[in-house]
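Moderator note: this is an archived Q&A kept for reference. The question asked for a predicted structure of one protein chain; the sequence and the answer are reproduced below.
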Amino acid sequence: MENRALLVGVTGITGSNLADQLIAKGWTTFGLARNPPKNSKNLHPVAADLLDLENLKIALKEVSPTHVYITTWMRQDFEAENIRVNSLMIRNLLEALAPYQSVQHVALVTGLKHYLGPFEAYAKEGFLPETPLRESQPRLDLENFYYAQEDEVYAAAARDGFTWSIHRPHTIIGKAVGNLMNLGTTLAVFASICKATGKPFQWPGSAAQWNGLSDVTDVSVLAAHLIWASTTEAAHNEAFNVINGDFFRWKWLWNKLAESFGIEAIGFDGTIHPLEEQMSEDAAIWKKIASENGLQESDLNQLASPWHTDLDLGRPIEVMTDMSKSRKLGFTLYQSTEDSFYDLFEKLRADRLIP
């Protein structure tokens, strides 16, 4: 039977990279977004609003996907609203697809806030999990829109008979523009500003993150993991952590990143220096850098998400993620984290997004 993928959130950091892998494997691939790309070779655009059920029903009428990959979410001001909006998107999507009975598998991308808590109580004392993080750890006794999203998938699977997989990456490293959670590009832009202005490449985060062990998720690894779990019977109806497979300390990697830009790194000095504060006056500077270097994007907000980078780098604990479950079931892909950053920087330069 033909594999027909519906990729929800195709313009995002995960969705765009997953689309490339699916198309390369010969899958018929549909990309859903409010404004999907219309000039992407072999990607069938689906323009739809996930909050509008009737609009979804019309947009999805001829799609009949076998596999659905949900890689999008909408940030709200409060967790209660995050829960309402993000669960509604999934409920509407799966309800719109239900009459066709074509769906065999649904894969949902969430993340480590499953273990660390929602934005409103992120990595706070009293809710700090034991590391390495394992899929067997119970849900926190907190409202969390990731839990609400999972529950929508479970309910629809029980109703419609498809299998599912939940994917929990750590910080995703990959190329995207306009993404809300983009640490790799944020640091590339910050380093570029530091190089152009002589501003210090100052570590923004906590002592625990500076000194402790950490890991990240290359977007290519996440995309491969999504395809693997959705097509491997032993991986069906399971939740998985997804990381590169190596560990590092920021006090080592921060210096490496600085070296790659030809600038000097300043490490943890006893005080947290949030990147959101360090970059608060940089919008005009970035416009000037973009103009002088012929860059494709002059709006700093389209490239950098310092608020989310601060969440990651300011945590009061080291964060390591266990991948044993995937390894035991046969997923063995590995990626060097140092190379993840260098590869990203090369792509950003090649696409004229940083100097």
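Archived answer notes: The mean pLDDT is 95.
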